[in-house]
Amino acid sequence: MNDNLIGRGLNLGISRRSLLQSSAGIVGGSLLPSIPAFAEDKPAIGTYPAGVSGSTAFIGIAVPRTGTYAVQGEDELKGYELAIEHINGGHELMKKISPKTTKGVLGKELKYGVADSAAKPNEAVQAQQRFISENKAIMVTGGTSSAVAVALNKLAQREKVLFVCGISGSNDTTGKDCVRYGFRQDFYGQTAAAAIGPVMVKTFGKNKKAAYLTPDYTYGHTVTKSMQDFLTTAGWTTATNQVSPLGAPDYSSYLLNVANSGADVLINVNWGHDAVLSTQQAKQFGVLDRMKLVVPYQVPFIARETNGLMQGVYASTDYWWTLEDKFPLAKMFNEAFEKKYGYKPEWGAENAYISFAHWARMVEETGSFYPPDVIKTYEKGETLPSLVGDVHYRAEDHQCVRPVIIVRGKLEKDMKNKEDYWEVVEIVPGEGLMQKPDAFGCHLGNYS
Amino acid sequence: MVSWPNLVSQLFNGLALGALLALISSGLTIIYGTLGVLNLAHGAMFMVGGYAGFVAYQYTHSFIIAVIAGSLFVMLLGLLMERGIIRQFYHRPHEDQLLVTFGLGICFVEIVRLIFSSQSQIVPPPPLLQGITNLGFMFYPTYRLAVVGIVAVALGALFLILYRTRLGMIVRAGIEDSVMVDSLGINVYRVFMIVFGIGAMAAGFAGIINAPVVSLTPGVGDDILVETFVVVVIGGVGSFPGAILGGLIAGEIISVTSMFNPGYAYVMLFAAMTLVLVLRPHGLLGVQGRE
Question: Do A216 and B263 touch (CB under 8 A)?
């Protein structure tokens, strides 16, 4: 068998005529004037150029539509869908973020597929693997759980397909688990802690005792660690750290430990329905009557779902709709979103929309979908418009440097309408919140 | 966090948590013990009970009516399930039963999600049971205290039905040998339908009683189903007293472990289940050979 193969390999069967024709072609081609980089000029990598060889480009979306993060996943999906609609239609807002966008990306209409990740990494990876293999997805997205984001980071790097990260609050996503093919727009544990920490110290004082409710995965551990690290500098100590599994059906035993810990402040790092349930049960157990509550990584819809328990509570977030008073693009986004979906967008939708808009701009500026070139365009660190002012992506870890918004829950009497839950207290510029690029162990990996 | 006051608090909380788990598990174990059907839709029926009660509460603002509506609605649903689908599966392999009940559970969850979305819904406890009670050694939510009493009464009523009535005697006879019961001229299938209805009602009752403790979401039954199975395995599959014992053990394990290291609360629960399976494969109060 091997002998036959070797024999065939040696016997190339090239005639003198075909050799001359090929040589003439190569020489002729080299004499042509240089032209901009088109798809045909680049070597195949990942789903390129197969994924963009027709008139469309496909995006794989994996968001939780069931499980503890389902509500947030649905909101995120709406942001993606609105962005795709605006990219394909050349909407005015999209043009302000990605000026070269007319219809589609590089003239190709965006198509997309949606899978329910249920906030489980294995389900998200399987779905995206399918989108990559069967639909030749040129870009994939997903998150809401940082465990999913980290898993999709790895998949993206392995498959050489761009991953534009959805909601992910873990330091690891652009830290020790960062990849060349992954980019994150939203805020995260480190920036949340650096933004809300000073507000907490100013409000509650120094040398306080904090109790933490921490979900048992990368998001929870890194956010809690960042909060502890910052608050330690102000003399705060950790009275207790209650670690619970994702989707815990009951928090009573954790809350009893919190109640008996002597803490002054309860820092609830839980997210999604876990945050809603643990906050409601904290109220039932009288914990909120005895200590102040802080939500360092705000949860979309938590104010509505906890029915008044967020009044007076501080939180840090990516976006809140009343920022439209300060940022014209936010106003345009709110209007478009509310017109389509009938409610004010939360920050999951904002992150989804702006992440896609930035990606569209990067591809347009590159003039190609060729992933290594698109990555290099991101890595130029160009100043980009966003819904909360100018931002840029760091070349070293692919993290967007963007402001963190500090909000405080409004009292019911101060609410101007039924969705006016939060008051924007401060817009903290991103630059001063970031850790050094290598502080969390980021090594991006190869382009190809 | 290890201290005497905290230990006492956690022991008490384990009792309350265990009572709730016992109530939820009782319906599952009654159905399995009698019909031999492992009902994977049990968590979804528990959830439907909560939502049915929620709807009734929205219209009436009466918690008692919500409890009655939640229980009866799921009982009706259970009767329809048994007559329409489950009955076809009594003589089919367990794998088929698992698949069909699993599928039904998914349908129930998605229908509820379609109607109510994934956003959580709140059923407040009755005004008399709101707030916190000072027990001297700890503060505890008044409603959770009441739940311990409600569960005790409910489980007592189920016990009386199963062990002190003619229906209960037939049910228990059916558990042991349904063919013999049938040959004595008793319509076993009618009994099975009633049992399925009672089991379903227990799930619905637990769902609405549990609603003020948690906030309702379509996934609330999924989260609790795993714990329910652990309870049933520890107590003995098909054993009603086993469900109560298993519930109390599970509640105490979760509560007390969380005092030492909360991250290991559920690990310890599964470790306990594994230990029981190794040492006593039929559960603490299960009977060997029961089908």
Answer: yes
What would the two tokens of residue A206 be? 């120094």
User: By the 8 A CB rule, do B237 and B33 touch?
Assistant: yes
Helix B240-260 with B4-35: angle, nearest 10 deg:
150
User: Could you report the predicted ipTM of this complex, rounded to two decimals?
Assistant: 0.81
What class is the A50-188+323-403 domain? alpha beta
Residue in A67, A74, A284 closest to B141 by CB: A284
| Window 225-264 of B, Cβ < 8 Å to A | 227, 254-255, 258-259, 262-263
Q: Domain limits of chain A?
A: 50-188+323-403, 190-321
Classify domain A190-321 by CATH number: 3.40.50.2300
Beta bridge partners of A399: A184
Q: What is the pLDDT along chain A (448 residues), one digit of tens a residue?
A: 333 333 333 333 444 454 445 444 444 444 444 444 444 578 999 999 999 999 999 999 999 999 999 999 999 999 999 999 999 999 999 999 999 999 999 999 999 999 999 999 999 999 999 999 999 999 999 888 999 999 999 999 999 999 999 999 999 999 999 999 999 999 999 999 999 999 999 999 999 999 999 999 999 999 999 999 999 999 999 999 999 988 888 898 899 999 989 999 999 999 999 999 999 999 999 999 999 999 999 999 999 999 899 999 999 999 999 999 999 999 999 999 999 999 999 999 999 999 999 999 999 999 999 999 999 999 999 999 999 999 999 999 999 999 999 999 999 999 999 999 999 999 999 999 999 998 999 999 999 8
Kind plus residue range of the DSSP H or E element containing A237: strand A237-244
